């Protein structure tokens, strides 16, 4: 399946499945200090924030890692989907485009 088709399929996933995917990716790619998450405007408005935070905390606890004090950035990122982790000066690019380009097995079909 072409990268663009996979992208469309992922961003149109049911909300809870998409939130689950984002939470799994955040837990996988989080590094201490990168405590701010930037989403695109669509995803930021789409997230059920309380459910997402509870899910994210549970996933960090399940890995035995310390649950970080993450915050959703006020500013949004100009991306199709996924997120960007930032420490204010540096970023970790976890956009769907980058993840699909680097290792498409990371994301569901």
Mean pLDDT: 90
Residue windows where pLDDT falls under 50 for at least 5 positions: none
Beta-strand percent range: 5-15%
Helical content, roughly? 40-55%
Give the oligomeric state.
single chain
User: Which value, in Å, is the CA radius of gyration?
Assistant: 13 Å
Tell me the distance between the termini.
8 Å
Order of helices and strands: HHEHHEEEH
Task: Tell me the total number of β-strands.
Answer: 4
Largest sheet: 4 strands, mixed
Q: Taking strands numbered 1, 2, ... along the chain, how are they ordered across the largest sheet?
A: 2-1-3-4
**What is the count of helical runs?**
5
Judged by helices, strands and strand pairing, the structural class is alpha+beta
Provide structural commentary:
By secondary structure, this protein is of the alpha+beta class. It contains five helices and four strands, in the order H-H-E-H-H-E-E-E-H. A four-stranded mixed beta sheet has the order 2-1-3-4. Helix 2 crosses helix 4. The termini are close together.
